[in-house]
Amino acid sequence: MGLAAAGGALAMAPAVVQTVSHARGLKRRELESEDKQHIQGQRYPEPVCAGDGPRTIGEIRQILRDIPFNPKPYNGVTSTLLFSMADVIPMMLECRKATCGKVYPYPEPFESVVFSSEDGTPISGVVAIHDDGRPRPALLMVHGLFGSKRIWFSQQVILSAYYGWGYNVMAIDLRFFGESKLFSDAPGTGGWKEGQDIIAAARFLKSHDEVTSVAVMGGSYGGAAAMCAAYQSEPRDLIDGGIISFGGYGYVPTEVDYISKPPMPWEPFFPIFLYFMGCYTLTLGTRVRDYTQFSDFLTRYSAEYYGVEPEEVMDRSSAALHFDEIQTPMLVISADDDPVILREQADMMAEKARGNPWIDVWQLPRGGHCAFSTVDKDWMGSVVRNFYNYWACFTDGAGA
Length: 400
Prior knowledge:
Strand content: 5-15%
CATH topology: Rossmann fold
Oligomer: single chain
Structural class: alpha/beta
Number of strands: 8
Number of helices: 15
Order of helices and strands: HHHHHEEEHEHEHEHHHHEHEHH
CATH class: Alpha Beta
CATH superfamily: Alpha/Beta hydrolase fold, catalytic domain
């Protein structure tokens, strides 16, 4: 997919955006209603919370493993396409400076903010802090490759956590994506610098007296960045509410090589590769002539921009190589039928996590690429909420 094809899709955008925006408006009102039901205990059953003893990955692992997983009989490509369908055009719009930030606005309690990453790079975000004065845990949502804080994958989590769980929430655009690229030309690195963006966002949340703990969720590229944040975080308890990485990779060299090579038409990754290349073209514009592949961009453009060797970018963005440094509770969930992330990524992360009491790597038979909510929505919701509530710091009865 080149600029011509991408431009044709953009021409269809207004009607699609209007239709999906209406659906999401209905969803938002549904979530607002669920907030009242949550308080009455009708829709959101009491989540597990830690007892008086020390909290451990082993204890929450057992609790989560007991949640029934009954996936729909979709293959990995089908579940991935169904999951991402609503965001196909919005993601393309978010790739261009001229059209980013135009779709799917957040409701009134959310405020737009710009803060500095750990290296001074401006980062765009939206934040919602409950105005009742009750200290509450916070959840930070991180998008995937070519995504943004405005796509539905981000919004459905953030709106549910704010309206349904009573959390304070934040969603960000990593550097080089969404509205963050309006403020800086800083390129992505595959996880290293993006992890610093997440750390800065966690620090921003912790600056609010109403925030008792900070949790992070990331999918795909965002999941990899969240894991990189875990090993770079100082102090170590900055992200004290736990991290969930869905469909994230832990070792950059093999993954970037995989997504850089055009697959054959019959290979599962083929339809997703075409879309990725369309988004890549829209994001880079004329620079795509100099960096025709993802690997070129990381090893040449990003390395030169940050003044490091290509090997250093790859190493620092490969969170699995630094798992022994992590002291943040972290749940890494992958699927056997993921058409984007190689199975060997999960195998390597499981091996590197062995012996670290803070990390749990969970490989499931189905789920496609970050599409667990498509194959089993109830399981996804239960796992996410129970994990975060287990690690969250509640005050004055919040979260009951």
